[in-house]
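Example 3.2
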Amino acid sequence: MSIQHFLWTQELGYLTHPNIPLETKNLRIADIGTGTGIWLLELAKALPLPSSVQLDGFDVDLSLTPPNSWLPANVNMHKWDVYDDLPDEYLGRFDLVHVRFFLCVVRDSDPGVLLKRLLLMLKPGGYIQWTEQDLLTCTIASAASENNVQQTEELQKFALSPTPYWPSTATRWVAGLARIFEEEGLQRVLEDRRKSQPSLLPYWQDVTLLAMEEISNKLPNGAEVGVMIQKAVQEYEESDRGVAIISDRVTIIGMRT
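Structure, written as tokens:
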């Protein structure tokens, strides 16, 4: 998860989109699905007014975050499931709400349910920044035309195959997320869509293999697709010769009025 964070940062060149104003004193920022907390911790060092900023991480499981005694004084972690009601203490309190990697969190291909709840956290004039991988743009990149891509094609097929833990084509909502922002009344909506930098493709492929192996481990013992994924990952060699699965990275921002 932290490896993904650093790759995302290299691809985007920012933690928060340049169009989001962060110069105000006493900013309060929420990171939803904080995971290891790495985005907040990096932001705590990068903000122009770190001593006056309050940073709050939210996740259903905080076991991956550092112990509270190791966190900066202005960083706090909170256990919260985004499908539960929002506690009153967080209503209208935040200048920025950050969301990332929610492909496996959004239910029924409808991010609007979550978006409505997250917008309740924003102050008037506050921003939401939502970043995702658009799996429907998946293609295979090869450093040389003579490279064999058969193993990578098999992995790509698995990556787009439906399982209880893998989003597959249920991620069509990513392409329309900017439109959904506008339908919810957000202003200054902007989509930043990036292709992967070729120099980062080997590292992204490593992350893809790790993610697929993790997904296969969550499937029921003996599940056919899980066994096939594990075998494909264990035997995979093509990334050493410059072959990788690539897809667009998309960031959407919008301001609450």
